[in-house]
């Protein structure tokens, strides 16, 4: 359990360590892939600075290099990021009624999947919500993402070709991070919600697409919570 | 930076920011405890993380690498169970996965 004192920026930076470790190799891989797909280093870095959404950025590479129209590509990527609308209310609900959100316009820019998961894990372990803490958490993750992208773009396409084991290990960093985050918030009452989300994700991914599977998993799991599978008084 | 890449980044970046920020402004303070919306929001976190983990693992399962995937997952479970450290578990899982790939016979 964490102490009950208010969390500050430094607490957020420290809590962001797992994300830093998880993001850097993935961002590095993105930088390598982007330059390998013919983007300049600045274009790769610009995507990370402005979009800051890993899966969407990798998909953007495929769309840009396939010559898809900009609006079609934008619509696809926006739809892929739609899941983020669920995070703000869920986080604020967990943070409690006294949580301030005056500067949310700034820290919410960094409310990625992993930052949301890490924030929720910290709150579940007794951490008090604060905006400086959210800034710290987001800043650590963003800095890691940008520096990884820059280094990957600098290394250039094919930088990992001679290191297949390292490439494989880096590729498993994100699933390992998600599993760790899941374990950090796990409690017995939410197991049915988790099971429903997992089954829906696999089913819809296999039948339709990965993006649809992600949306379906989140919505199915949340609906399972509404009908009481996650406990009647879950908070 | 090409104009098409910049345009794409700006459109997607603006929508993504809006998706992340605007819902934080929703007034949820008057939600009744245990009500349907409160339960929906409470379940969203575990559902989202379970979904993202599942979605990130599916390609590994489809790729037919059960040994590395098993080693990586077991390492995450074991290290998290022993240390409660997200950092340690993530690093151990990644290292164990790499070890599994290294142990696999080539081809």
Automatic annotation (TrEMBL), chain A:
Biological process annotations from GO: L-valine transmembrane transport
Entry keyword set: Cell membrane, Membrane, Transmembrane, Transmembrane helix, Transport
Record carries keyword Transit peptide: no
Predominant subcellular localization, coarse grouping: membrane
GO cellular component: plasma membrane
Highest taxon of source: Bacteria
Membrane topology: Multi-pass membrane protein
Keyword field contains Transmembrane: yes
Chain ranges passing through the membrane: 12-33, 45-64, 133-156, 168-186, 191-208, 214-231
Subcellular location: Cell membrane
PANTHER family: INNER MEMBRANE PROTEIN YGAZ (PTHR34979:SF1)
Similarity-based family: Belongs to the AzlC family.
Protein name per UniProt: Branched-chain amino acid ABC transporter permease
Species assigned in the record: Tabrizicola oligotrophica
Lineage of the species this protein comes from: Bacteria, Pseudomonadati, Pseudomonadota, Alphaproteobacteria, Rhodobacterales
TrEMBL record, chain B:
Domain of life of the source: Bacteria
Stored InterPro entries: Brnchd-chn_aa_trnsp_AzlD
Transmembrane segments: 36-61, 73-104
Keywords for this protein: Membrane, Transmembrane, Transmembrane helix
Protein name: AzlD domain-containing protein
Protein species of origin: Tabrizicola oligotrophica
